[in-house]
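Page 37, continued from 36.
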């Protein structure tokens, strides 16, 4: 693959821009400066260095973020800054998308990728990848609310009641809710339909992958092969 094409695929700019950066001597391939944009490079194990930053080549990008409150999961936010503003521009240019959305005031585990098939597998209800939320509620969580969430609640635009895969009271006002899908405002609407109100919402985990405790709000990191395997793990009730 030609060097300028590799650079473009990784989000380093337009074809013209990538060619210019290589010609200017600003790109190192596996640690050695290369000023020929048409040089053939092997993407396997390739490391590119630009502006002093080294980027391993990735055919597809898989990223997680600890989403802070006050950010919208949209490239065109209306009232708040975009979560994409928290990522390096290279990742945005190469076309990363949110893997499902979180509301602007929801915090926690948010995934991004440019792999359409991966995104589909993660959000399709048929794949059964669980999303685990911690919801702080306005009123004490009653047994009736827990029973309703487990049995299934009616949401206005849904043909059938929707039940949580699992539901537990963590303290008087806090619920842990595990869902198989990610419909619009689903947790807030389900809790409202069960007679309470969500004041604060945080996504703790997707599949068997929990938000790393050492990742501060607003920070991101790459997902590795082990992370991806845990993410795609279908929900099993014994481990919930
Ligand atoms: N359910 C909600 O209501 N909001 C979110 O952000 C995620 C799930």
């Amino acid at each position: 693959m030609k060097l300028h094409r590799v650079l473009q695929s990784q989000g380093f700019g337009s074809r013209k821009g990538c060619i210019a950066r290589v010609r200017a001597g600003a790109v190192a391939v596996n640690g050695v400066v290369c000023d020929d944009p048409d040089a053939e490079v092997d993407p396997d194990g390739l490391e590119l260095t630009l502006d002093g930053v080294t980027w391993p080549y990735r055919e597809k990008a898989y990223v997680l973020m600890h989403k802070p409150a006050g950010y919208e999961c949209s490239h065109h936010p209306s009232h708040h800054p975009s979560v994409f503003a928290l990522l390096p521009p290279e990742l945005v240019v190469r076309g990363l998308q949110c893997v499902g959305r979180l509301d602007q005031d929801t915090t926690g585990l948010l995934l991004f990728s440019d792999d359409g098939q991966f995104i589909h597998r993660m959000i399709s209800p048929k794949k059964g990848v669980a999303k685990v939320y911690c919801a702080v509620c306005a009123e004490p969580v009653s047994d009736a609310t827990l029973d309703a969430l487990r049995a299934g609640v009616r949401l206005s635009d849904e043909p059938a009641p929707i039940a949580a895969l699992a539901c537990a009271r963590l303290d008087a006002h806090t619920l842990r809710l595990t869902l198989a899908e990610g419909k619009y405002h689903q947790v807030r609407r389900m809790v409202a339909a069960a007679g309470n109100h969500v004041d604060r919402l945080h996504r703790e985990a997707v599949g068997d992958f929990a938000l790393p405790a050492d990742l501060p709000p607003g920070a991101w990191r790459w997902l590795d092969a082990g992370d991806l395997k845990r993410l795609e793990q279908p929900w099993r009730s014994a481990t919930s």
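The chain has a mean pLDDT of 95. Flag for discussion at group meeting. The longest strand covers residues 198-206.
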